[in-house]
């Protein structure tokens, strides 16, 4: 599978400047960063949550973990991790586990952790397990302009930057 059509449309509509980085097949964002030889802090991962009101996406560095209590406080919702089967239905143009961060394009409220704005450039999943999108942070923040920027994540113990 190549870049998701939804992501491609978002990039085109925003006039984003980016490059595609190919890497060996990976199973997680941390593996993707290692396979592509990039710092994990610069790889944005997408984690999907749900409750009775629907889905919420959290976008954060691959070396960070969501502080659920902070996300609950920001959203006013008791969110839980979305089920894998739901991800396949919601992101039909993506491989399972390779979600791009443009979740507003999929109709979801999206929260972007502020720590990503501090990076000089950003990488993120293109919708499969062998390609990343690479762009400058300003381009990324423009692409994610409809996401709410806040702090809800913390660096995981023992993770390389």
Automatic annotation (TrEMBL):
Cited Pfam families: tRNA_edit (PF04073)
Gene3D superfamilies per UniProt: YbaK/aminoacyl-tRNA synthetase-associated domain (3.90.960.10)
One MF annotation (Gene Ontology) recorded for this entry: aminoacyl-tRNA deacylase activity
All copies of domain YbaK/aminoacyl-tRNA synthetase-associated, residue ranges: 23-142
InterPro entries (UniProt xref): YbaK/aa-tRNA-synt-asso_dom_sf, YbaK/aa-tRNA-synth-assoc-dom
Protein name: Deacylase
